[in-house]
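Tokens as discussed.
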């Protein structure tokens, strides 16, 4: 039995605490250099107090900015963790997304639904891979709405590898006028992933932003 994964990823940039520690070290070094400069100034040409006061103020502003950034980073990480925890309840449920990307695997086809703005007389489907390359095309039965499943079969009879695929639909009238077609995808949620301040749901191998969720069913 495979246990669905729930995870949270972080980048490799320095953490807020690391930035704050480094700033403290730099600030102490700055004060030592400034003190040394004052102690060794020419008595006949003393350093203008306004100058080193400005230097101190500028460095203090930088220090405060780094601390604020550190605080915001910590808050964002906490919010992401909370969102992942909340979204974990979606695992195992069937979800529908306002999204044209669907996952394809050996045991589950890519699944889409569509609704045209008005009745169409012609409907052409184009499927592209994650690199934007066309891998399959198909002419669908004209209709204002419907479902379209793709099992990965290619024109040469081969099978497309598992992965995320994008569907685009071209709807036309009898006179050739274009009709806008809205596309959605659906599937079972297998995992929840957080990172970069966003949460995505793993559906049949495709990562879909939770913000695209429009329907959830058991």
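Sequence:
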């Amino acid at each position: 039995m495979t246990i669905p994964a729930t995870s949270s990823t972080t980048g490799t940039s320095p953490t807020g605490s690391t930035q704050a520690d480094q700033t403290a070290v730099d600030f102490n070094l700055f004060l030592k250099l400034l003190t040394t400069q004052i102690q060794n100034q020419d008595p006949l040409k003393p350093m203008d107090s306004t100058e080193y006061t400005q230097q101190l103020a500028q460095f203090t502003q930088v220090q405060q900015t780094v601390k604020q950034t550190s605080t915001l980073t910590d808050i964002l990480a906490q919010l992401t963790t909370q969102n992942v925890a909340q979204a974990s309840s979606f695992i195992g449920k069937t979800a529908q997304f306002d999204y044209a990307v669907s996952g394809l695997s050996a045991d589950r086809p890519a699944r889409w639904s569509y609704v045209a703005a008005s009745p169409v007389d012609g409907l052409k489907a184009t499927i592209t891979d994650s690199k934007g390359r066309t891998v399959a095309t198909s002419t669908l039965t004209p209709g204002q709405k419907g479902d379209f499943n793709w099992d990965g079969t290619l024109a040469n009879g081969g099978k497309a590898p598992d992965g995320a695929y994008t569907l685009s639909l071209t709807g036309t009238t009898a006179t050739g006028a274009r009709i806008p077609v809205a596309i959605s995808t659906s599937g079972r949620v297998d995992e929840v992933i957080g990172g970069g301040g966003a949460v995505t749901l793993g559906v049949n191998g495709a990562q879909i932003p939770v913000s695209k969720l429009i329907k959830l069913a058991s």
